[in-house]
Predict the structure.
Amino acid sequence: MDMLQIPKIGMGTFGSDHISAGVMASSVKEALAIGYRMIDCARVYNNEREIGEVLAASKIRRSELWLTGKVWNDMHGKTNVIKSAELSMKDLQTDYLDLFLVHWPFPNHHPPFAHVDERNPNAVPYIHEQFMDTWSGMEELRRKGMVRHIGVSNMTEAKLHLLLRDCSIRPFAGELELHPTFAQKELRSYMEQEGIISIGYSPLGSPNRPERDRTAEDVVDMNHPIIVELAKKHGVHPASICLKWAAGNGIIPIPLSTKVKNLRSNFESIHSDSLTEEELTMLEAVDSNNRLIKGQVFLWEGAASWRDLWDEDGTIAGGKS
Ligand SMILES: NC(=O)c1ccc[n+]([C@@H]2O[C@H](COP(=O)([O-])OP(=O)(O)OC[C@H]3O[C@@H](n4cnc5c(N)ncnc54)[C@H](OP(=O)(O)O)[C@@H]3O)[C@@H](O)[C@H]2O)c1
């Protein structure tokens, strides 16, 4: 089986409650024309059918495309995971996915347009045995050849450690929030040491993320003065600096855009001059633990704050190993 190498940049497709499936699909069409070959999809983005139509019409050979899919929190468990992958494959009009991820390590879901204070009364903390049941479905998909690689998203070192201890097939990649002001250096170096590829989401600082994910202290990377200054020096948009930062740190970024100009500039940022070692070192100074996607809506009753989702002190909040 010929394996396509994972591309250096992908296109994000999370409409974040305000971009319709039709608009997203036309943006994917533009992205393919520019040269993007990796599309970051997810069941919960509710646009796989429209994207699938664009992929089919594009006439790009399937072997040249990298399609990532994700199982949403309401389809955890071995049987459901397989069902979810089948639904994504049907909508995306493909007979395999290049990469399939567990979108969040919790089976906690929320309705679309959920408010930041909305809680699912059935939400639970991380339960490792349940996660491993879900992972066994992922492994089954890999064994059957329905997906070429399997991986995780929104995991922490503590949770990854348990997964690596107990899995039969290791995760190929992890998708996580990564941008210069949220560099997650320790987690990335742990993943690198374990041979797990980092795919960086919200690489530009997600200026249009849902209202529920905004707080007054948040910084949008594209507006950070050091990034703006460096962009001026290079004669590029600050978005380019964020993407070059990702590439320079071995991260595969998956920026979203609905504008041809931005899609093109983002693609070119990865395929043109890199930042120097000195510039990359300078950018380490902007890291301010600026997590934008906090995940409040996934919290369970009794959780202290969104920080409980991220195991900041190295232990899994409310969980059992
Ligand atoms: N695994 C997960 O849990 C998870 C979570 C969040 C996101 N993701 C994935 O990561 C993707 C990207 O993250 P994101 O959408 O949150 O944020 P992002 O890529 O950091 O930011 C996207 C925003 O930046 C603007 N933009 C893009 N290129 C630009 C440029 N060159 N100049 C100026 N503005 C530009 C876009 O607006 P325009 O449309 O106007 O260009 C868009 O609103 C998502 O679409 C999704 O696929 C995954």
Notes: Residues 128-143 form the longest helix (16 residues). The two ends are 36 Å apart (CA to CA). Strands lie at 11-12, 38-40, 66-71, 97-102, 147-153, 173-177, 197-201, 251-253.
